[in-house]
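Entry 12.
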Amino acid sequence: MSPSPQRNYATTQRPQIAVVPLTAAFAEVASALHEEGFEDCWDGDAIIRLLDVPGAFGFLAFRPGNEANHDKDEPLGFVLIQSVLDEAEIVTIVVGRQARQSGVARKLLSAVFDRLRDKRIGRLLLEVAEDNAPAIALYLQYGFEEVGRRKNYYRRKSGREVDALVMEHTHGHCVLGWGD
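Predicted 3D structure (tokens):
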């Protein structure tokens, strides 16, 4: 998968979004997306190491290309999860700048929830910077609740420190007996 020209999906049509498992083959693509979303970004090797952790999995969202028009697949975003027993954590989720506000994060979260349901994982945690209002709004829409705060967890390049909100979503499928 190699990138095609940048599009601004927020002001144009919504893209067709396909989702595939995130594998080591997509590590460099994921790294490039991560760089768009975070000041402290991960290289391809770091993503491969994270995928190698037992219980880790992820998804890559992309706009399928059109061979007739010589369009290539366009990576839009990815999510990386680590799971242990009946609990999982979103390690990172990012959507490329040009594809934000176009349903990519929703598509990724839906894939995650489907996988968690299949694995009977009932609790999903994440951390989000308190100044990331669009992400917080999305998580709240998906039923996440704030369960904690990590003071001065993120340090911006400017030196400003930002709290991390710890958020949780429960679905009731738990091997250890809690939940519904």
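Annotation: Residues 104-118 form the longest helix (15 residues). The helical segments are 27-37, 44-51, 104-118, 133-141.
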